[in-house]
Design a protein that fits this description.
The complex is a heterodimer of chains A (321) and B (539).
Chain A (H helix, E strand, L loop, with lengths): L24 H21 L3 E2 L1 H4 L1 E8 L6 H9 L6 E6 L1 E9 L5 H16 L3 E9 L1 H29 L2 H24 L3 E2 L1 H31 L5 H33 L5 H29 L8 H4 L10
Parallel strand pairs in A: 1-6
Antiparallel strand pairs in A: 2-4, 2-5, 3-4
Chain B lengths: L5 H18 L6 H5 L11 E2 L1 H4 L1 E8 L1 H22 L4 E7 L2 E6 L5 H8 L5 E4 L3 E5 L1 E5 L5 E6 L1 H24 L7 E5 L3 E7 L5 H7 L5 E5 L6 H6 L6 E5 L7 E5 L4 E2 L3 E8 L6 E7 L1 H13 L5 E5 L2 E4 L11 E4 L5 H13 L6 E9 L1 H55 L2 E2 L1 H30 L4 H33 L2 H39 L8
Helix pairs in contact in B: 1-11, 4-6, 6-10, 7-10, 11-12, 11-14, 12-13, 12-14, 13-14
Classes of the chains: A alpha+beta (321), B alpha+beta (539).
Chain lengths: 321, 539
Amino acid sequence: MFPIPHFKGFDFFPHDTRIPFMRWKGICVTASAILMVLSLGLFFTLGLNYGVDFKGGSIIEVQSKTGPVDLPEVRQTLGDLGLGDVQIQEFGSPTDILIRLEEQPGGEQAQQDAMVKVTNALGDNFVQRRIEVVGPAVSSELRTTGTIAVLVSLLAIILYVWFRFEWQFAMGTIAALTHDVLLTVGIFSLFQLSFDLSIVAALLTILGYSVNDTVVVADRIRENLRKFKRMELNELLDLSINETLSRTILTGVTTFAVLLALFFLGGEVIRNFTLAMLLGILIGTYSSIFIAAPLLGYTGIKRDWSGAEKGKKSPAVASGA
Amino acid sequence: MLHFQRWKIIAITLTCLLGALFALPNLFSKETLQSWPGWLPKSQINLGLDLRGGAHLLLSMDVNDVRKDWLDTLRDDARAQLRNARIGFTGLGVQGGAVHVRIAQQDQVDQALKQLRNVVQPIGNALLGSVGDDISVERGAEPNLIILQPTDAGMQQRVSNAISASIETVRRRIDTLGTAEATVVRQGWDRILVQFPGLQDTAQLKALIGETARLSFHDVHPSISGEEARASRPPPGYRVYPSAEADGFVYLLRETPVVRGDQLVDAQPGFDQRTNEPIITFRFNQSGARTFGRFTQENVGRPFAIVLDDKVLSAPVIQEPILGGSGQISGSFTVETANNLAIQLRSGALPAKLTVVEERTVGPSLGADSIEAGTRAFVVGGLASLTMVTIAYGTFGLLAATGLIINAILMVAIMSVLGAALTLPGIAGLVLTIGMAIDANVLIYERIREELRAGKSPIAAIDAGFSRAIITIADSQLTTLAAAIVMFWLGSGPIRGFAVTLSIGIFTSVFTAVTVTRLLVALWVRSIRHKSRTVEVPI
C-alpha cells in the first residue's frame, strides 16, 4: 500500500565519540579571545570597506555592448570628470564593470548630478545594469538602523535564552554571539570586502543560526544535568557535545552545501552576502562547541534541575498537533 | 506521537493540497491564468524590483520650502486682516522663521492682536480632538511688535498635508508614463517612496517629479527695470525674479500673482504656427479666465510675466485682451521639456521641492540574469539538501525529503497569497530555509537513533524522537524568527524580501517537520505493521 523503498540510511558519524573537547577549552577560549581582540583592532585601525549604503555615494554596474571592457581607458575617462575617488572593477565577467563613486560634496542633488556626468561620459557603448545612489541623509540613517538592528537582535536572543535557560547559558550565548559577529567583521575588515546592508542581514542570519546551534547543545546539557547528577561537569559537557555532534555536523554540512550553491551559482550581486554567511556558519558552529559550552564550566551551572522544570513551563510549540 | 486522529490526517492533507493549489499559478503564464475559471486562485509570486528590473526612488521633501511658503501666505493673510480692520502698520515681513509686523499706533496693538488671531487655526484629529493651534500670535520684545510664529505641531501638520498632496501629484505625473503598476507611498515623516517596475532610464521620471512646476502670471513693474531694482531696493510688494534662461536677465514683478497655475484646467504641448517652436497651450477655469481677461483688458500694450518656479519663462507684451481663457507659453522649449512641463502643469504643482535621496535601479537584463542565477542556485541547493537527507536517513530520509518539498510548495503558496515581493536575497532565504529546515529532521532522526541504541523498541524510539526534539526545534526556530523580524524592520526592498522568506520558511518548516513528516512516518509505520508484526526502523 505504501510503495516506498525500504533502505537504511548511511550513518556518517560514529556515535560513540568521546572527543575531549573540554581539554582544549583553555586553548580555544584564549585563541578566540585573541582573535576577537585582533578583529576589534582591525575594525578600529584598518576599518571596514563600507559600501554605498553606509558611506553614501553611488554604484553603477554597466555592461559593454562591444566586448570586453578596456578598464584603463574607462578609468582615464571617468578620472577626468573630477568626481574624486572613482573605483572601477570588473564584475563577474570581462564585459561587466562596477563603478563606485564616493559621496560628492554638496548634498543630495550633487549625487544625482555626478551620476548624470558618468552616464554621459560612458556614452552609448554601455548598457546600465544597476544604479544605486545613496545620499548623505539616508546613509547616516542606515548606519544607525544597522547598528541598532544588530544590537536589538543580540538582546532579543539573549533575553530568550535567559528566559528559557539559566543566566549562565545566556552568558555563554552572549560570548558566542559576540565572538561570531566580531570575527566576521574582522575578516571583512582584513580583506577589505565591501560591507553594506546585505552583510548586516547576513550577520543577523548568522546570529540566528549560531544561537540555534548553541541552544541545541545547551538543551542537551540541561537534559544531561538532570540525568547524571553526579557526573563531573567537564565530563558532562563533553558528553553533551559528543552526543549532539552528529547533528551539529550534518546540519552544518547541509547548510554549508546550500550556501556554496548560492555562492557559485547565485550571481555576483549576492556573492558577498553568501560569503558572509559561509564564514558565519563555520564560526558559529565552532563557537557553540568551543565557546558557549566551556563558558558554562567557568560560570558554574546549577546542578540540580529536578525541581526547576515544574515551576517553569516551557513555551508551547507552534504546531503540536 | 504516532497516533493521528482521522480529522487531523484530513486537516493536514487538506492544508498541503491547498498549498499546492495556491502555488500552482506560478507554473503558468499570466495569459493562461486569464482563461482559468474564476474560483481558482490566480495570484503569483510578486517579483521584487531587483528581479524584474525597475526603479526605486526615495524622495525627500524640502521642509524649509514648505515653511517659507507658509510664511509667505501668512504674511499676505496678516496684511489682509490688518487692512480690513483699518489698522496702520509698518515693517510687515518674514524674519527668522516668523512673520513680524509693527503696528503704527500703540493703542491699536490689542485690536491688531485680536484681528490677527483670526488666521490661527486649531489642529488635531478626530481621535484626540483639538490639540493646539497651528500658529502662535504674540507681542514681540518691542511695544508695537507682533510676531506670528508657526508652532511645531502646526509645522508637522503642514508638512504632513504637503506630503499627502505631493503623493497625489507625483502619482498623476507618473501615470502619464503609462504604467499602472508604479507605487507611490509615504515613508516616514517627510519622504515619498516611488517604485516603478520595468523602468530603466530614470532620467525622464526624475525630470517629471524633480520640478515643483508652480506656474503664475505676474504684473511687471511699469517704470523700474529689474536691473535698477536689483541695484537699489525693490519697492514694497515687488520682487526681482531671474530669467529662466542663463542670460542673467532679471525682471521686477509684483509678488502677488494675477493668476496662479492652480486655475489651469488643461495644458498641452504643441508647436507655434509661425516659428514652429515647441510651446505649451493652456486653458484657465472660469474664475481664472475672468481674472486674466480683466487684467489683460486693463493692460493692453504692457508686458506681463509668466513665471515657473520663481523663474521668468517669458514676458510677452499684451497685444489684445485675452478673454477666452486660453493662451500659450513659449520659452525655448525642446519637444521633451515642453511635453514634461505640460504634464506637470496638468497634474498640478508640488507643494514643495522633492529631492532624490536614494535611488536603486536595476535594468531588465540584470534582473533576468538574477532570476536565472537564483533559480539555478535554488534547484542545485534544494537537490543537494534532499539527496543529503535521503542518504543519511534512508527511507525516513526520503519521507523527510517529501516533507521538504511540501515545505517549499507551502512557502511558494504563502508568498503568492500574501503578495510579498520575492527578491534575490529572498531566493537565498528560500534556499537557506530548505537547508536549515533539514535541521529539524536531523534533530528528530538523530534522537531516534539514540533511543534505538539505548535499547528502546522501534515504535517507542520513533515516538520519543519526535516528542523530545520538538522543544529543541521550537527553541532554535524562535531565535531565528527574532532575527528575521529585526531584519524586516531594518531593511528596505531586497533585505526585507530576505526577512520575509526567512520568517515564512520558519513557520512552514516547523509545520512540515513536526506535522507532515511525522504523519508520513506514522502512515509508513502503520503500513509496515500491516504486513509484519515487527517493525525495523530504516534509519
